[in-house]
Specification:
Layout: H1 11-15, H2 31-34, H3 42-54, E1 58-62, E2 65-68, H4 69-86, E3 94-98, H5 103-114, E4 118-122, H6 128-137, E5 142-146, H7 150-159, E6 165-169, H8 178-182, E7 199-207, E8 210-218, H9 219-234, E9 241-244, H10 251-263, E10 267-269, H11 276-286, E11 290-293, H12 295-302, E12 315-318, H13 325-335, E13 340-341, E14 343-344, E15 351-354, E16 367-368, E17 373-377, E18 390-395, H14 406-412, E19 413-414, E20 417-426, E21 432-437, E22 441-444, E23 447-450, H15 451-458, E24 464-474, E25 478-487, H16 495-508, E26 517-520, H17 534-545
Parallel strand pairs: 1-10, 3-4, 3-5, 5-6, 9-10, 9-11, 11-12, 12-13, 25-26
Antiparallel strand pairs: 1-2, 7-8, 14-15, 15-16, 17-18, 18-20, 19-20, 20-21, 22-23, 24-25
Length: about 550
Amino acid sequence: MHEPSAHVDTFARDHLPPREAWPILDLDTVPEIAAYPARMNCARELLDRQAERFGRRPVLHFGAEVWTYRDLLEKANRIAHVLKDDLGVRPGNRVLLRSYNNPLYVACWFAVMKAGAIAVATMPLYRRRELTFMADKAEIAVALCDRRLSEELEAARGQSTHLKEIVYFNDPANERSLEALMARKPADFETVDTAADDVCLIAFTSGTTGPPKGCMHFHRDVMAICDCFSRYVLQPGPDDIFTGSPPIAFTFGLGALVTFPMHAGASTVLVEQYTPERILETVAASKVTILFTAPTAYRAMTQLVGRHDISSLRQCVSAGETLPLPVWQGWFDATGIRIIDGLGSTEMLHIFIASKGDQIRPGATGKPIPGYRARVVAEDGRDCPPGVVGRLAVRGPTGCRYLDNPERQAAYVADGWNFTGDSYLMDADGYFWYQARTDDMIISAGYNISGPEVEAVLLEHPKVHECAVVGAPDAERGQIVKAFVVLRDPKQASSETIRELQDHVKALIAPYKYPRSIAFLEQLPRTQTGKVQRFLLREQAAAQAS
């Protein structure tokens, strides 16, 4: 820490990796970041100051509701008082957030920032197992949660050693609801004067070795992604209207639907549960100009777009998984819009490779955006020449800092660079072309899924002797989760057992992680030392999918 921390609770500072394990942070590559002050709170920059500038301009649209910047500020201030006065939250404490994409969730996120606390956002689909792990890993005592998502969180509270207090919103019958507590609080709150490098969020990401990993990001990082991708690539203005499908609990969604539009003084249409048809309906009805979603949605919308007037739409961004050329071309042919394909990661907070407009080369991910550098690295650590596949390494103003996970930190960061787990080649013009993952991460419809995490759940089923989970190619979702299972009793191999195992996984972890395909084997292929030969299973999965 270069500046004295505002955190009374030093948990985050104490559990950062040692400085020598951090990637190199390039803080002088764009002028805006080079000029950042030593003390910074992203809520002051994005909400307090923008409310002064834009006041009664809309910031959030939700059904018939329209919140102005002033509305959002006042609600965030009231929630910050609830956190501080009623729940005893102090700077540096972690607060779990759990909700669908709606305005009150955004207000809660900013309230946590204003209180100098640390937000730990959780996906609505997460189950008690995942929630308990996150609550205990980050030592979270307090949660703000949409009442509709209470069941799994209450179960997690019963299992957690740390989670004690949950305040629910969208809970009108409860006298202790967040709305009832807010109503008794003043509409002003002095934002805590945090250091620019105080941790403000811990974002959990699926890992290739089992449990999720907590990625720790600073107030400065939140502003840096706005001053890199949004400022230099997206370039929105105050009249733009954003929408998109990624959950705000994902850092992709946080940038796309909250920080990027607010950085520009623009507004966002929030929808809790999007389908491709509903995205198009919303674009037409709300005159959306900027859309963020995943390749699977663009593929589906291409067949539907002729039914809707989307003439207001001027920019589309795809991220979460690689964008296949046929999907890019199909959308361009149908709409005339060149999709910006963005490569990002939770470890880096947001997108770091992309191209825009006429600079887009269809099929390529793009070039490093302003503020970032990228290399393709051979096994010996040297740069690969153009056209040769190697490991992608990136660095910039943001970077990987795992919460108390030295093994994974050492795997992700080497020689000051972040190694993302992707294989790429760079062409002679400096464009980066995706080839494959270099680890066991499965990316399905934009979701990162840990194969070992699914394996661990399957192994808890009494019928399963052993198993291995890999990604299988899929035309619609990019990849699907495929499980190869050795049963204790081979005679039980049946379609009924497949459904039983699938339901077992859905019940214990987020349903999008369940194996959509299960194959029964007499034994798993192994090396002489007993290691499962996953590459053989991936080859078999690919052959069966073709």
